[in-house]
Amino acid sequence: MNEEYDVIVLGTGLTECILSGIMSVNGKKVLHMDRNPYYGGESASITPLEDLYKRFNIPGAPPASMGRGRDWNVDLIPKFLMANGLMGLFEKRRFRKFLVYVANFDENDPRTFEGVDPKKTAMREVYKKFDLGQDVIDFTGHALALYRTDDYLDQPCCETINRIKLYSESLARYGKSPYLYPLYGLGELPQGFARLSAIYGGTYMLNKPIEEIIVQNGKVIGVKSEGEIARCKQLICDPSYVKDRVEKVGQVIRVICILSHPIKNTSDANSCQIIIPQNQVNRKSDIYVCMISSAHNVAAQGKYIAIASTTVETKEPEKEIRPALELLEPIEQKFVSISDLLVPKDLGTDSQIFISRTYDATTHFETTCDDIKDIYKRMTGSEFDFEEMKRKKNDIYGED
Protein backbone atom coordinates (compact mmCIF):
# COMPACT_ATOMS: atom_id res chain seq x y z
CA MET A 1 0.00 0.00 0.00
CA ASN A 2 3.04 2.28 0.27
CA GLU A 3 2.35 3.88 -3.10
CA GLU A 4 1.30 7.28 -4.39
CA TYR A 5 -2.15 7.75 -5.87
CA ASP A 6 -3.86 10.61 -7.64
CA VAL A 7 -7.03 10.04 -5.60
CA ILE A 8 -7.85 8.06 -2.46
CA VAL A 9 -11.54 7.40 -1.78
CA LEU A 10 -12.82 6.47 1.69
CA GLY A 11 -16.27 4.90 2.00
CA THR A 12 -18.31 2.87 -0.47
CA GLY A 13 -21.54 4.82 -0.50
CA LEU A 14 -22.99 5.43 -3.94
CA THR A 15 -21.55 8.96 -4.16
CA GLU A 16 -18.04 7.75 -3.39
CA CYS A 17 -18.25 4.76 -5.75
CA ILE A 18 -19.54 6.84 -8.65
CA LEU A 19 -16.76 9.40 -8.19
CA SER A 20 -14.20 6.60 -7.89
CA GLY A 21 -15.41 5.18 -11.20
CA ILE A 22 -15.40 8.57 -12.88
CA MET A 23 -11.87 9.39 -11.72
CA SER A 24 -10.57 6.00 -12.85
CA VAL A 25 -12.20 6.40 -16.27
CA ASN A 26 -10.51 9.82 -16.49
CA GLY A 27 -7.12 8.16 -16.14
CA LYS A 28 -6.49 8.85 -12.45
CA LYS A 29 -4.72 6.30 -10.25
CA VAL A 30 -7.35 5.52 -7.59
CA LEU A 31 -7.21 3.67 -4.27
CA HIS A 32 -10.63 3.01 -2.74
CA MET A 33 -10.91 1.85 0.89
CA ASP A 34 -13.72 1.23 3.37
CA ARG A 35 -13.60 0.26 7.04
CA ASN A 36 -16.67 -1.93 6.44
CA PRO A 37 -16.57 -5.41 4.87
CA TYR A 38 -19.48 -4.55 2.53
CA TYR A 39 -20.37 -2.02 -0.17
CA GLY A 40 -22.88 0.78 0.25
CA GLY A 41 -21.91 2.51 3.49
CA GLU A 42 -24.82 4.49 4.85
CA SER A 43 -26.93 3.37 1.88
CA ALA A 44 -26.15 -0.35 2.11
CA SER A 45 -28.61 -3.13 1.31
CA ILE A 46 -29.04 -5.42 4.33
CA THR A 47 -29.34 -9.18 3.86
CA PRO A 48 -30.43 -11.53 5.31
CA LEU A 49 -33.49 -10.20 7.14
CA GLU A 50 -32.06 -11.40 10.46
CA ASP A 51 -29.28 -8.81 10.10
CA LEU A 52 -31.86 -6.03 9.77
CA TYR A 53 -33.48 -7.13 13.05
CA LYS A 54 -30.05 -7.06 14.74
CA ARG A 55 -29.15 -3.67 13.29
CA PHE A 56 -32.31 -2.10 14.74
CA ASN A 57 -32.13 -4.08 18.00
CA ILE A 58 -35.46 -5.82 17.37
CA PRO A 59 -35.66 -8.73 19.86
CA GLY A 60 -36.14 -12.23 18.56
CA ALA A 61 -35.99 -13.61 15.04
CA PRO A 62 -38.22 -12.67 12.11
CA PRO A 63 -41.46 -14.71 12.14
CA ALA A 64 -41.77 -17.65 9.78
CA SER A 65 -44.47 -15.74 7.87
CA MET A 66 -41.74 -13.50 6.43
CA GLY A 67 -40.17 -16.37 4.53
CA ARG A 68 -36.47 -17.09 4.18
CA GLY A 69 -34.13 -14.41 5.53
CA ARG A 70 -31.87 -14.62 2.49
CA ASP A 71 -34.77 -13.63 0.22
CA TRP A 72 -34.56 -10.09 1.61
CA ASN A 73 -32.31 -7.22 0.48
CA VAL A 74 -33.48 -4.16 2.40
CA ASP A 75 -32.08 -0.75 1.43
CA LEU A 76 -31.39 1.49 4.41
CA ILE A 77 -31.80 4.56 2.21
CA PRO A 78 -33.83 3.68 -0.89
CA LYS A 79 -33.85 6.02 -3.86
CA PHE A 80 -35.36 5.65 -7.31
CA LEU A 81 -33.25 6.47 -10.35
CA MET A 82 -34.73 8.97 -12.69
CA ALA A 83 -49.04 8.48 -10.67
CA ASN A 84 -53.62 9.12 -10.14
CA GLY A 85 -55.94 11.27 -8.08
CA LEU A 86 -55.81 15.01 -7.40
CA MET A 87 -57.63 16.24 -10.50
CA GLY A 88 -61.19 16.56 -11.69
CA LEU A 89 -62.23 16.48 -15.36
CA PHE A 90 -61.70 20.19 -16.12
CA GLU A 91 -58.46 20.29 -14.13
CA LYS A 92 -57.17 17.37 -16.18
CA ARG A 93 -57.90 19.26 -19.40
CA ARG A 94 -56.01 22.31 -18.20
CA PHE A 95 -53.16 20.15 -16.96
CA ARG A 96 -53.01 18.35 -20.30
CA LYS A 97 -52.64 21.69 -22.09
CA PHE A 98 -49.84 22.56 -19.68
CA LEU A 99 -48.04 19.25 -20.35
CA VAL A 100 -48.38 19.71 -24.11
CA TYR A 101 -46.80 23.14 -23.70
CA VAL A 102 -43.96 21.62 -21.67
CA ALA A 103 -43.41 18.86 -24.23
CA ASN A 104 -43.11 21.40 -27.06
CA PHE A 105 -40.99 23.86 -25.08
CA ASP A 106 -37.47 24.47 -26.38
CA GLU A 107 -35.47 27.16 -24.60
CA ASN A 108 -33.57 27.80 -27.85
CA ASP A 109 -36.70 28.28 -29.96
CA PRO A 110 -38.77 31.43 -29.12
CA ARG A 111 -41.63 30.06 -31.24
CA THR A 112 -42.38 27.60 -28.42
CA PHE A 113 -42.56 30.22 -25.64
CA GLU A 114 -46.22 31.28 -26.16
CA GLY A 115 -45.63 34.67 -24.57
CA VAL A 116 -43.48 33.33 -21.73
CA ASP A 117 -39.93 34.60 -21.24
CA PRO A 118 -38.12 31.54 -19.79
CA LYS A 119 -35.37 33.73 -18.32
CA LYS A 120 -37.72 36.26 -16.68
CA THR A 121 -41.25 34.88 -16.22
CA ALA A 122 -41.73 33.34 -12.78
CA MET A 123 -43.07 29.78 -12.63
CA ARG A 124 -45.99 31.09 -10.58
CA GLU A 125 -47.10 33.09 -13.64
CA VAL A 126 -46.85 30.05 -15.91
CA TYR A 127 -49.19 28.09 -13.62
CA LYS A 128 -51.55 31.06 -13.65
CA LYS A 129 -51.45 31.16 -17.45
CA PHE A 130 -52.87 27.61 -17.53
CA ASP A 131 -55.25 28.25 -14.61
CA LEU A 132 -53.90 25.37 -12.52
CA GLY A 133 -55.21 24.93 -8.97
CA GLN A 134 -53.10 24.73 -5.82
CA ASP A 135 -53.30 20.93 -5.51
CA VAL A 136 -52.02 20.51 -9.06
CA ILE A 137 -49.29 23.09 -8.47
CA ASP A 138 -48.16 21.17 -5.37
CA PHE A 139 -48.17 17.91 -7.33
CA THR A 140 -46.30 19.37 -10.29
CA GLY A 141 -43.64 21.21 -8.32
CA HIS A 142 -42.88 18.48 -5.81
CA ALA A 143 -43.68 15.17 -7.54
CA LEU A 144 -42.71 16.03 -11.13
CA ALA A 145 -40.12 18.81 -10.86
CA LEU A 146 -38.89 17.30 -7.54
CA TYR A 147 -38.47 20.60 -5.69
CA ARG A 148 -38.36 20.32 -1.91
CA THR A 149 -39.62 23.85 -1.18
CA ASP A 150 -41.83 26.38 -2.98
CA ASP A 151 -39.00 28.87 -3.52
CA TYR A 152 -38.94 27.92 -7.21
CA LEU A 153 -42.34 29.56 -7.78
CA ASP A 154 -40.79 33.02 -7.88
CA GLN A 155 -37.74 32.00 -9.91
CA PRO A 156 -37.48 32.16 -13.74
CA CYS A 157 -39.46 29.25 -15.14
CA CYS A 158 -36.90 27.75 -17.54
CA GLU A 159 -35.35 25.24 -15.10
CA THR A 160 -38.73 24.09 -13.78
CA ILE A 161 -40.13 23.51 -17.27
CA ASN A 162 -37.03 21.50 -18.18
CA ARG A 163 -37.38 19.41 -15.00
CA ILE A 164 -40.99 18.58 -15.84
CA LYS A 165 -39.96 17.83 -19.42
CA LEU A 166 -37.33 15.36 -18.15
CA TYR A 167 -39.96 13.60 -16.01
CA SER A 168 -42.38 13.38 -18.95
CA GLU A 169 -39.74 12.06 -21.34
CA SER A 170 -38.60 9.48 -18.76
CA LEU A 171 -42.20 8.37 -18.27
CA ALA A 172 -42.71 8.05 -22.03
CA ARG A 173 -39.60 5.89 -22.32
CA TYR A 174 -40.76 3.16 -19.93
CA GLY A 175 -44.55 3.50 -20.02
CA LYS A 176 -45.66 3.20 -16.40
CA SER A 177 -43.00 5.02 -14.41
CA PRO A 178 -40.16 7.50 -15.03
CA TYR A 179 -38.05 5.73 -12.43
CA LEU A 180 -35.69 2.75 -12.43
CA TYR A 181 -34.76 0.48 -9.53
CA PRO A 182 -32.09 -2.24 -9.60
CA LEU A 183 -32.96 -5.86 -8.85
CA TYR A 184 -31.58 -6.99 -5.48
CA GLY A 185 -31.58 -3.41 -4.18
CA LEU A 186 -29.38 -0.34 -4.42
CA GLY A 187 -26.38 -2.21 -3.05
CA GLU A 188 -25.83 -3.38 -6.62
CA LEU A 189 -25.08 0.18 -7.82
CA PRO A 190 -21.95 0.89 -5.73
CA GLN A 191 -20.59 -2.52 -6.72
CA GLY A 192 -21.26 -1.73 -10.37
CA PHE A 193 -19.21 1.45 -10.21
CA ALA A 194 -16.54 -0.37 -8.21
CA ARG A 195 -16.22 -2.83 -11.09
CA LEU A 196 -16.01 0.08 -13.54
CA SER A 197 -13.20 1.61 -11.48
CA ALA A 198 -11.37 -1.74 -11.34
CA ILE A 199 -11.56 -2.11 -15.13
CA TYR A 200 -9.70 1.19 -15.42
CA GLY A 201 -7.06 0.21 -12.85
CA GLY A 202 -8.66 1.27 -9.58
CA THR A 203 -7.67 -0.65 -6.42
CA TYR A 204 -10.32 -1.64 -3.84
CA MET A 205 -9.77 -2.61 -0.20
CA LEU A 206 -12.77 -3.47 1.99
CA ASN A 207 -12.61 -4.14 5.76
CA LYS A 208 -9.62 -1.78 5.93
CA PRO A 209 -9.30 0.29 9.13
CA ILE A 210 -8.46 3.94 8.58
CA GLU A 211 -6.10 5.18 11.30
CA GLU A 212 -5.35 8.70 10.13
CA ILE A 213 -5.83 11.15 7.31
CA ILE A 214 -2.47 12.86 7.03
CA VAL A 215 -2.51 16.60 6.37
CA GLN A 216 0.61 18.70 5.89
CA ASN A 217 0.58 22.50 5.64
CA GLY A 218 -3.20 22.39 5.41
CA LYS A 219 -3.26 19.94 2.48
CA VAL A 220 -3.92 16.20 2.42
CA ILE A 221 -0.89 14.07 1.56
CA GLY A 222 -2.05 10.57 2.43
CA VAL A 223 -3.96 8.03 4.50
CA LYS A 224 -2.55 5.73 7.20
CA SER A 225 -3.96 2.23 7.56
CA GLU A 226 -2.53 -0.66 9.59
CA GLY A 227 0.79 1.13 9.96
CA GLU A 228 1.20 1.80 6.23
CA ILE A 229 0.79 5.12 4.44
CA ALA A 230 -0.73 5.54 1.00
CA ARG A 231 0.04 8.95 -0.44
CA CYS A 232 -2.39 10.97 -2.55
CA LYS A 233 -2.99 14.33 -4.19
CA GLN A 234 -6.74 14.40 -3.52
CA LEU A 235 -9.09 12.65 -1.11
CA ILE A 236 -12.82 11.89 -1.44
CA CYS A 237 -14.71 10.63 1.61
CA ASP A 238 -18.05 10.46 3.34
CA PRO A 239 -18.63 12.54 6.52
CA SER A 240 -18.01 9.62 8.90
CA TYR A 241 -14.27 9.72 8.12
CA VAL A 242 -13.80 13.44 8.88
CA LYS A 243 -16.16 14.34 11.69
CA ASP A 244 -14.20 17.51 12.51
CA ARG A 245 -14.67 18.83 8.97
CA VAL A 246 -18.48 18.55 8.75
CA GLU A 247 -21.40 20.22 10.46
CA LYS A 248 -24.92 19.14 11.28
CA VAL A 249 -27.67 21.03 9.43
CA GLY A 250 -30.68 18.93 10.39
CA GLN A 251 -32.01 15.41 10.78
CA VAL A 252 -33.95 12.86 8.72
CA ILE A 253 -36.38 10.27 10.03
CA ARG A 254 -36.78 7.06 8.03
CA VAL A 255 -39.19 4.24 8.78
CA ILE A 256 -38.71 0.93 6.98
CA CYS A 257 -42.01 -0.97 6.93
CA ILE A 258 -42.62 -4.60 6.00
CA LEU A 259 -46.08 -5.14 4.51
CA SER A 260 -48.08 -8.12 3.34
CA HIS A 261 -50.05 -6.02 0.87
CA PRO A 262 -49.53 -3.31 -1.76
CA ILE A 263 -50.30 0.28 -0.79
CA LYS A 264 -54.00 1.08 -1.05
CA ASN A 265 -55.25 3.02 -4.10
CA THR A 266 -52.17 2.25 -6.21
CA SER A 267 -53.87 -0.34 -8.45
CA ASP A 268 -51.99 -3.07 -6.57
CA ALA A 269 -48.68 -1.79 -7.94
CA ASN A 270 -45.61 -3.81 -6.97
CA SER A 271 -43.62 -0.58 -6.71
CA CYS A 272 -44.45 3.08 -6.41
CA GLN A 273 -43.28 6.45 -5.14
CA ILE A 274 -45.56 8.78 -3.22
CA ILE A 275 -44.64 12.38 -2.42
CA ILE A 276 -46.84 14.20 0.08
CA PRO A 277 -46.29 17.92 -0.66
CA GLN A 278 -45.54 20.09 2.37
CA ASN A 279 -48.64 22.25 1.88
CA GLN A 280 -50.93 19.23 2.10
CA VAL A 281 -49.83 18.43 5.67
CA ASN A 282 -48.96 21.91 6.97
CA ARG A 283 -45.21 21.32 6.98
CA LYS A 284 -42.08 22.97 5.63
CA SER A 285 -40.80 19.70 4.16
CA ASP A 286 -42.31 17.07 1.88
CA ILE A 287 -42.89 13.51 3.12
CA TYR A 288 -41.65 10.71 0.86
CA VAL A 289 -42.75 7.10 0.53
CA CYS A 290 -41.25 4.51 -1.78
CA MET A 291 -42.39 0.92 -2.04
CA ILE A 292 -40.72 -2.08 -3.66
CA SER A 293 -41.49 -5.79 -3.48
CA SER A 294 -40.56 -9.36 -4.31
CA ALA A 295 -40.75 -8.33 -7.98
CA HIS A 296 -37.41 -6.57 -7.42
CA ASN A 297 -35.80 -9.53 -5.60
CA VAL A 298 -35.66 -7.55 -2.36
CA ALA A 299 -38.40 -9.33 -0.35
CA ALA A 300 -39.95 -12.75 0.11
CA GLN A 301 -42.80 -13.71 -2.18
CA GLY A 302 -45.96 -11.73 -1.46
CA LYS A 303 -44.13 -9.21 0.76
CA TYR A 304 -43.53 -5.50 0.26
CA ILE A 305 -41.00 -3.01 1.65
CA ALA A 306 -42.16 0.57 2.07
CA ILE A 307 -39.89 3.30 3.40
CA ALA A 308 -41.24 6.64 4.62
CA SER A 309 -38.91 9.58 5.18
CA THR A 310 -38.94 13.29 5.89
CA THR A 311 -36.80 16.08 7.27
CA VAL A 312 -37.27 16.43 11.03
CA GLU A 313 -38.93 19.71 12.05
CA THR A 314 -40.02 19.07 15.67
CA LYS A 315 -39.00 17.15 18.78
CA GLU A 316 -41.50 14.40 17.88
CA PRO A 317 -40.34 13.11 14.48
CA GLU A 318 -42.48 9.95 14.61
CA LYS A 319 -45.59 12.12 14.73
CA GLU A 320 -44.31 14.02 11.69
CA ILE A 321 -44.07 10.84 9.63
CA ARG A 322 -47.55 9.60 10.66
CA PRO A 323 -49.38 10.82 7.48
CA ALA A 324 -47.17 8.45 5.47
CA LEU A 325 -47.52 5.52 7.86
CA GLU A 326 -51.31 5.83 7.76
CA LEU A 327 -51.13 5.15 4.02
CA LEU A 328 -49.28 1.89 4.70
CA GLU A 329 -51.49 0.28 7.35
CA PRO A 330 -51.53 -2.47 8.38
CA ILE A 331 -47.75 -2.62 8.98
CA GLU A 332 -46.30 -6.03 9.86
CA GLN A 333 -42.96 -4.73 11.22
CA LYS A 334 -41.29 -1.32 11.22
CA PHE A 335 -37.73 -0.16 11.77
CA VAL A 336 -37.25 3.48 12.79
CA SER A 337 -34.04 5.49 12.40
CA ILE A 338 -33.16 9.14 12.86
CA SER A 339 -29.92 10.30 11.27
CA ASP A 340 -28.05 13.59 11.13
CA LEU A 341 -27.78 15.60 7.93
CA LEU A 342 -24.07 16.43 7.63
CA VAL A 343 -22.41 18.77 5.14
CA PRO A 344 -18.76 19.80 4.67
CA LYS A 345 -17.63 22.98 6.38
CA ASP A 346 -15.63 24.08 3.32
CA LEU A 347 -15.29 23.41 -0.40
CA GLY A 348 -12.08 21.40 -0.04
CA THR A 349 -10.15 23.47 -2.55
CA ASP A 350 -7.36 24.26 -0.07
CA SER A 351 -7.11 20.94 1.74
CA GLN A 352 -8.00 18.88 -1.36
CA ILE A 353 -10.30 16.85 0.92
CA PHE A 354 -13.68 16.58 -0.80
CA ILE A 355 -16.50 15.41 1.45
CA SER A 356 -19.88 14.15 0.30
CA ARG A 357 -23.14 15.14 1.95
CA THR A 358 -25.20 12.60 3.89
CA TYR A 359 -28.32 11.41 2.07
CA ASP A 360 -31.41 13.57 2.49
CA ALA A 361 -35.04 12.51 2.90
CA THR A 362 -35.84 12.39 -0.82
CA THR A 363 -36.59 9.06 -2.51
CA HIS A 364 -34.92 9.96 -5.79
CA PHE A 365 -31.32 10.57 -6.84
CA GLU A 366 -31.56 14.21 -7.98
CA THR A 367 -29.85 15.72 -4.91
CA THR A 368 -27.24 12.95 -4.86
CA CYS A 369 -26.43 13.63 -8.53
CA ASP A 370 -26.09 17.33 -7.75
CA ASP A 371 -23.58 16.52 -4.99
CA ILE A 372 -21.56 14.28 -7.32
CA LYS A 373 -21.41 16.94 -10.03
CA ASP A 374 -20.49 19.61 -7.48
CA ILE A 375 -17.61 17.56 -6.01
CA TYR A 376 -16.35 16.71 -9.51
CA LYS A 377 -16.27 20.38 -10.48
CA ARG A 378 -14.41 21.36 -7.31
CA MET A 379 -11.87 18.59 -7.87
CA THR A 380 -11.22 19.15 -11.56
CA GLY A 381 -12.25 22.75 -12.19
CA SER A 382 -14.57 21.68 -15.01
CA GLU A 383 -18.17 20.54 -15.42
CA PHE A 384 -18.86 16.81 -15.59
CA ASP A 385 -19.29 15.76 -19.23
CA PHE A 386 -21.73 12.85 -19.31
CA GLU A 387 -21.31 12.27 -23.06
CA GLU A 388 -17.54 11.95 -22.67
CA MET A 389 -18.03 9.43 -19.84
CA LYS A 390 -20.48 7.49 -22.00
CA ARG A 391 -18.03 7.45 -24.91
CA LYS A 392 -15.22 6.09 -22.71
CA LYS A 393 -17.55 3.43 -21.27
CA ASN A 394 -18.50 2.33 -24.79
CA ASP A 395 -14.83 1.97 -25.65
CA ILE A 396 -14.72 -0.81 -23.04
CA TYR A 397 -18.19 -2.35 -23.20
CA GLY A 398 -19.20 -1.49 -26.76
CA GLU A 399 -22.29 0.43 -27.84
CA ASP A 400 -25.56 -0.18 -25.94
TrEMBL record:
Q: How does it sit in the membrane?
A: Peripheral membrane protein
A Gene Ontology molecular-function term? GTPase activator activity
A Pfam family matched in the record: GDI
InterPro entries (UniProt xref) = FAD/NAD-bd_sf (IPR036188), GDP_dissociation_inhibitor (IPR018203), RabGDI (IPR000806)
The Gene Ontology CC terms held by the record are: Golgi apparatus; membrane
Q: Which locations, inside or outside the cell, does it occupy?
A: Cytoplasm; Golgi apparatus, trans-Golgi network; Membrane
In terms of SUPFAM superfamilies, this protein maps to: FAD/NAD(P)-binding domain (SSF51905)
| Subcellular location, principal | cytoplasm
Q: Which UniProt keywords apply?
A: Acetylation, Cytoplasm, Golgi apparatus, GTPase activation, Membrane, Phosphoprotein
UniProt superkingdom: Eukaryota
Among the GO biological process terms of this entry, one is:
small GTPase-mediated signal transduction
Residue ranges spanning the membrane: these are none
Spell out the subunit comment: Interacts with RHOH. Interacts with the GDP-bound inactive forms of RAB3A, RAB3B, RAB3C, RAB5A, RAB5B, RAB5C, RAB8A, RAB8B, RAB10, RAB12, RAB35, and RAB43; binds RAB3D to a lesser extent. Interacts with DZIP1; this interaction negatively regulates the interaction of GDI2 with GDP-bound RAB8A.
Function, as annotated, reads:
Regulates the GDP/GTP exchange reaction of most RAB proteins by inhibiting the dissociation of GDP from them, and the subsequent binding of GTP.
Recorded family membership: Belongs to the Rab GDI family.
Q: What is this protein called?
A: Rab GDP dissociation inhibitor
